[in-house]
Amino acid sequence: MKTKIDHQTDYKKPRSVSHGVKIRIEDKDIARATEFGLNITGVTANGILYLPLPLFSDKYKVSYSTLCRNIEKLKFRRSAWNYFIKVGNRYYVSCGVVANRKKHTGHFSNTEYAQWLQCYHWDIVGSVSYSASYSELAARKSMEKLFQRLSRQYDNKALVFFYVSEPNPAGDGWHNHFLLGYQGEIQYSDIKSLIENTLRAEKFGNKSITKLEPYDSNEYYIGYVVKKIHEAKDGYDFLSNHLMN
Questions:
Q1: Collapsed DSSP state (helix, strand, coil) of residue 179
Q2: What is the rounded distance in angstroms from the CA atom of residue 213 to the CA atom of residue 81?
Q3: Domains of the chain with CATH codes
Q4: What is the DSSP string of 83-110?
């Protein structure tokens, strides 16, 4: 059996984002732009789109106070630049700043979901198909069960988990794709075994076929995961045992 997840070439990491300007922010440029009161809005060299708070608030229907509160919670993280940058006295935020509530990401396009997920640390990617037809609800429950098991086993680790349930191409059921990040020292072989054993024994003998591999940001698996979430509005979720609400 082929163990490498089949990433479609259409979902390679983009070099730019539509409606943004690809820029590389340097200290001297920030100082010069601020001097003349210019707005810095665009895509940095790391591929993250930053918007001024008022524009972000209006575009994604997230309150200004929520954005400010989240900035305060994120500002001491080592990777705070994933979520926002500060130019002079102004903050510019990325999609990552909305954290993990679905109500905050409900206005995202697929591309913006990818921007959001890029702000998190990922360690494992996976695909799960089932030997008999699974409904969308059953596929979702399977992923929620997996995250509950991971949370119990690694309750001292900061876990992030994102899954998508998609209809099978033949129309005979649903399958899943997921991303897992654990921000700590866990043996890949141990967590791989736990995931496979959790998904293997399904009710009514409906066994699963699970393909796992370490996350590689160069392959842009995130784009592959989010490619169809607009077709299943309830068929995905972001789960975490440590992030702010």
A1: strand
A2: 27
A3: 27-118 (no CATH), 121-240 (3.30.70)
A4: TEEEETTEEEE-GGGGTT-HHHHTT--H
Task: List residues bridging with 211 in a β-sheet.
Answer: 127
For 152-165, give one letter per residue: b (16+ CB within 10 A) or e: eebeebebbbbbbb
DSSP code at position 120: S
Amino acid letter at 200?
A: R
pTM: 0.70
Q: What is the pLDDT along the chain (245 residues), one digit of tens a residue?
A: 334 455 443 444 433 333 433 444 554 544 454 444 444 555 554 567 788 888 888 887 888 898 998 888 888 877 787 788 887 788 888 877 876 566 667 677 888 888 788 878 889 999 999 877 888 898 999 999 999 999 999 988 888 899 999 999 887 889 999 999 987 778 888 999 999 888 875 554 567 888 999 998 777 788 889 988 888 778 888 888 775 44
Phi, psi dihedral angles at 50 (to 5 degrees): -110, 140
Per DSSP, which regions of 20-89 are E strands?
42-43, 49-52, 84-87
Structure tokens at 220: 């842009």
Closest by CA position to 243, among listed 140, 99, 29: 99
Structure tokens at 200: 């293997």
CA distances from 155 to 8, 125, 218, 226, 241 (A): 34, 20, 30, 27, 8
